[in-house]
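QA checklist item 7 of 12: single-chain prediction sanity check.
[x] sequence parsed
[x] length recorded as 154
[x] structure emitted
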Amino acid sequence: MHHHGYLWVGAKERFDQEALRRPPYPEPPPAGGKPELMQRYREVVAEFPTVDLPPLETAYWLVKPRSLVRGTWDEAKDAAAWVGARVAAYAPRFASEWQRNFADLAVLVNSATAKLSSGDDVALGFYLEHPSYLSLAVVTCSPNRARPELTCPL
């Protein structure tokens, strides 16, 4: 078991493009349906695996291009430390004053370590200075507990 880290920062309105953040349905729309539904289905099938937007379900980071992997760790504590370092680096830009002043990163890192050690994924999101968003994720790989059918991007 190992862990892959992902980081995305971008405009909140882009993050809100939910159709590109969820995998396409396994079956296309029925034949004879609205042409715009079929066109949208084709777009999602083509774009979901390549778009850099964070997927709604964390495990689906594994189908994204390997160039989006920001780090790979064998030890959960190392992956959790990466999360803590990213949170600390972005904290001055957090939109919420309470989050900016959140000082106990040790609690966050310990919680992330426990989750990753048990085979779970970790996903965090923070609103940054208006109107941006930060998404951090560490996905457990080989296999992923939530989606064991997804293969390792490396």
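[x] summary fact logged: The first helix runs from residue 12 to 15.
[ ] second reviewer sign-off
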